[in-house]
Write a sequence for this structure.
C-alpha cells in the first residue's frame, strides 16, 4: 500500500527522490515526538501528519509552481510567517531545495524545535527567526527582502495583510491557504489592500489529494510600497484591523 504521502505526491504530479522521502519520514517522526511535546502540533497520528501537514503544504507548492509564483530552479527568497512546525514552508523546501527560506514565529518553543529539526535533517541555509511579524516587518534585515510570503492558519486576511506585506519586495506575492470563509475574508480586506499596497491575484480552490475541498489559495501581489507606519505595533493589527 503506498503511503498517504506517496499517493498524494503522485496525484499532484510531483516527484520525490528516495532521499526526499527519507527527510519526510524523519520529519514526521520528530513532529510526533519532540513536536508534540513542545506543543508545536496537536496532530497525533502519522496519517494525519502526512495528510494535513505534508500533502496540504505540497498542494500549495504545486499551485505556486502552476501559477509561476515560484519556479523549480530559481533561488526565490521565501518567508513562512507564523510557521509553527514548519508549515507550509518546510515541505516546500524539501521539495524545492534551492529556495532560500526563512521561518518566522513568535514562540521560542516553536523556533527551538525547528532549529533542532533542521540540524537533525541536515538542512542548511535556512534562517529561523523568533519574533512577532509586527516587529520583524519593521526590521531592515527583513523588510522588503522577500519574493514570497507563505502563511497558513495565522490570522484572518485583513490582519494577515498587515503582518505579511511589509516583508515583500514590490511585485512579490503572499500565498495563504484558507478555509471555507475565504471569500468573506477577501471582501473584508478591501481597505487593508488599499492602505498596505496589495492586490488580490486569485483565490482558486486548492486541490488537496484526499483532503477537504473547501480550501482556497489566496494569492496577493504587492502592487505598491507599504507605508512606513505599517505594521503597527504588536497586537494592534489584530485588535484594530483595517
Ligand atoms: N502555519 C502553521 C501551520 O499551518 O501548521 C502554524 C499555525 S498556528 C495555528 C499559528 C502560528 O502563528 C503559531 O505558531 C503562532 O505562534 C504564530 N503567530 C501568530 N501570530 C503571530 C505573529 N504576529 N507573529 C509571529 N508569529 C505569529
Amino acid at each position: 500500500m503506498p503511503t498517504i504521502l506517496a499517493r498524494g505526491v503522485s496525484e499532484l504530479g510531483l516527484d520525490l527522490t528516495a532521499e526526499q522521502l527519507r527527510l519526510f519520514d524523519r520529519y514526521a517522526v520528530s513532529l510526533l515526538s519532540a513536536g508534540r511535546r513542545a506543543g508545536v502540533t496537536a496532530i497525533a497520528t502519522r496519517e494525519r501528519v502526512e495528510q494535513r501537514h505534508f500533502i496540504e503544504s505540497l498542494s500549495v507548492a504545486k499551485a505556486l509552481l502552476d501559477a509561476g509564483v515560484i519556479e523549480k530552479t530559481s533561488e526565490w527568497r521565501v518567508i513562512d510567517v507564523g510557521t509553527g512546525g514548519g508549515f507550509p514552508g518546510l515541505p516546500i523546501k524539501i521539495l524545492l531545495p534551492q529556495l532560500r527560506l526563512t521561518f518566522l514565529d513568535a514562540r521560542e518553543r516553536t523556533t527551538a524545535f525547528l532549529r533542532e529539526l533542521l540540524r537533525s535533517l541536515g538542512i542548511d541555509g535556512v534562517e529561523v527567526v523568533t519574533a512577532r511579524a509586527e516587529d520583524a516587518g519593521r526590521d531592515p534585515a527583513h523588510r522588503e527582502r522577500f519574493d514570497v510570503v507563505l502563511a497558513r492558519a495565522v490570522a484572518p486576511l485583513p490582519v494577515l495583510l498587515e503582518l505579511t506585506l511589509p516583508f515583500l519586495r514590490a511585485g512579490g506575492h503572499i500565498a495563504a491557504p484558507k478555509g471555507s470563509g475565504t471569500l468573506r475574508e477577501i471582501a473584508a480586506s478591501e481597505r487593508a489592500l488599499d492602505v498596505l499596497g496589495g492586490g488580490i491575484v486569485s483565490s482558486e480552490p486548492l486541490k488537496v489529494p484526499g483532503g477537504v475541498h473547501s480550501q482556497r489559495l489566496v494569492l496577493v501581489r504587492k502592487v505598491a510600497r507599504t507605508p512606513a507606519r505599517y505594521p503597527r505595533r504588536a497586537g494592534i493589527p489584530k485588535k484594530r484591523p483595517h
In short: The radius of gyration is 17 Å. The first helix runs from residue 4 to 12. The first strand starts at residue 77 and ends at 81.
